[in-house]
Amino acid sequence: MKWEPYAASRLVSWVVHRAVDGASMLLGVPLFWALHVESFVPHYTQRFQLLVQAYLMAAGRSMRRMLHNQLDLCQHLHRIARDMQTAAATSSLDSQLRARLCALNVSFAGRLSLPLHSKCTLVEFISSECRVLKSPKRPLWLTLETASRTKVRVIFKAGDDVRQDMVTLQLFGLMQQLWRDANIPVQLQLYECVATSPSSGVVEVVGDAITT
């Protein structure tokens, strides 16, 4: 859509129609975040802001409300992650994070939603299981409880462009399909990630993963 001569094109109409028709959660949420992130690029800001508005107008009230909640939460998490990066390297980082997340549990009560788990009804952050990871960018390890009493674990990263991860995962997904078609038994489980800005994103945590 970047290279279309006009913002209102047949391609845009087709993409928006596909996103709001039927499986809106499956296609609409990734589309919104892809358009939102591209709107940060100065040369394309106006175009992608128009595309975001076009999608939101077609998406319906409930989808708009959910995406607004996701955007609001991710902005809060981005600020928290940045504050953790600039804080002194002390043992109190985890307690600072947990206090901030408890406040989010109150302000986002009944409207907690993340780009990676839009289909899940999230209840709250399990603050006791959240922590600041020990790496230079100090990403946030977050554990949330769903309405069905299961746990969702994600990593929120600030200061990294996770769009590079997304492209790599798409390539692995294509390779995985080719291996399956060739009956090659490859034990590969792809995690998900969504960029929420050019320098932040949410990454799925795969439980019991083995890294070599």
From TrEMBL:
<dbReference type="GO" id="GO:0005737">
    <property type="term" value="C:cytoplasm"/>
</dbReference>
<dbReference type="Pfam" id="PF00454">
    <property type="entry name" value="PI3_PI4_kinase"/>
</dbReference>
<protein>
    <recommendedName>
        <fullName>PI3K/PI4K catalytic domain-containing protein</fullName>
    </recommendedName>
</protein>
<dbReference type="GO" id="GO:0005942">
    <property type="term" value="C:phosphatidylinositol 3-kinase complex"/>
</dbReference>
<keyword id="KW-0808">Transferase</keyword>
<dbReference type="GO" id="GO:0043491">
    <property type="term" value="P:phosphatidylinositol 3-kinase/protein kinase B signal transduction"/>
</dbReference>
<dbReference type="InterPro" id="IPR011009">
    <property type="entry name" value="Kinase-like_dom_sf"/>
</dbReference>
<dbReference type="InterPro" id="IPR015433">
    <property type="entry name" value="PI3/4_kinase"/>
</dbReference>
<dbReference type="GO" id="GO:0048015">
    <property type="term" value="P:phosphatidylinositol-mediated signaling"/>
</dbReference>
<dbReference type="GO" id="GO:0035005">
    <property type="term" value="F:1-phosphatidylinositol-4-phosphate 3-kinase activity"/>
</dbReference>
<dbReference type="InterPro" id="IPR042236">
    <property type="entry name" value="PI3K_accessory_sf"/>
</dbReference>
<dbReference type="GO" id="GO:0016303">
    <property type="term" value="F:1-phosphatidylinositol-3-kinase activity"/>
</dbReference>
<keyword id="KW-0418">Kinase</keyword>
<dbReference type="InterPro" id="IPR000403">
    <property type="entry name" value="PI3/4_kinase_cat_dom"/>
</dbReference>
<feature type="domain" description="PI3K/PI4K catalytic">
    <location>
        <begin position="126"/>
        <end position="212"/>
    </location>
</feature>
<dbReference type="GO" id="GO:0005886">
    <property type="term" value="C:plasma membrane"/>
</dbReference>
<dbReference type="GO" id="GO:0016477">
    <property type="term" value="P:cell migration"/>
</dbReference>
<dbReference type="InterPro" id="IPR018936">
    <property type="entry name" value="PI3/4_kinase_CS"/>
</dbReference>
